Structure formats: C-alpha cells, structure tokens
Amino acid sequence: MFVVIFRAKIRTADSEYAEVAARMRELALGQFGCFDFKSVTEGRDEIALSYWPDEESIRAWKSHADHVLAQQLGRERWYESYIVQVARITREYRYASDLA
Amino acid sequence: MFVVIFRAKIRTADSEYAEVAARMRELALGQFGCFDFKSVTEGRDEIALSYWPDEESIRAWKSHADHVLAQQLGRERWYESYIVQVARITREYRYASDLA
Prior knowledge:
By secondary structure, chain A is of the alpha+beta class.
C-alpha cells in the first residue's frame, strides 16, 4: 500500500479552489484506484493524504489531463509552496475507544 | 527516509494536551533523530507527520518512557481513535513560488 503525502502552504483559497479540490478527490477515488483520501487544513497549512494500491495508479493519476490542469492552477493561484511525497507503508497500528 | 503518519480523531483537547504534544515534539526532534515534524488540526481531525532516518529511530522513540506515558494519556483522555502508519519515502517533488 502506498500513500501520497501532499503538504502545502496556501497562498489564496478562492471559491474555485474548494470546487477543484473536491472534483480531484472524486476523480482519484472513483477512477484511479485511490481507496482513502483525507485532507486537513489549519490556517494556511494543508496536509492531504491519499492511499493507493501501487505506484502505477499514482502515476496514472498524476498524469491525467484534469489533474495536470489542477496542478497548474495550484501553482499559479492557490499554493505558495508544496511538497509531494510518495511512500510505501510498512506497518500500521490502530486504536479506537469504546466511544468511537 | 521514513515518515510516521499519525491520523487522529480528537475526543477532548484539554490544557495538558497541547503541553504534552509540544514536549513530545521537542523530544522527538532533540533526542531521537527526527528531522522534521508537522502537525495540522481542523476541528476534531489531526494529522501529524514526523520524518526519520531509519526504523530503529522510530522504534526507540516509540518505546521511550515519556512517550509511552503520552500514548496512554492519549488513549485515555484525548483521542477517540487514531491510526499510526510507518512508511518509507520513495520519491519527493517540491514546488515554491517566487513569493515563498
């Protein structure tokens, strides 16, 4: 299992930003084999995690035309800077209280 | 390079929570070889990323007495649920605008 870590410093989050982000999330989950997607934003800091079965799925997702356009808009308008890290998950622990 | 992904659903973040979180961050960075630490919280969702040179450092950090106590407090008081994922980073891309 692979994870793509997206760490960004937001410059301007206009109305199109949320719309494109939601569409990209749906595309990844619906058509590229992504099976979990979690994004958290605090002030100008964003971390988004997406989970994938293999690196081929990530490459296909990265080069899809709509996603390439979204990446370009991201650099031109929405992000001051970002880091993308691809990583292979080697182990995992989970905890859930009785309340969860 | 390894990353530890901590994804949590917060139950209650009392005053001790921020204090212990800051102490754990300092301990990881100062004594266990962690070289980057980034945490983002939105509502009850928290993602914390920490970066390590190898799995031995992560294991030593995981079993340090102060950290074990913090983990216990986390389960008893602060977190409704969490997932910890250890992953090896295979590639990385960076972007920074002229403004960054």
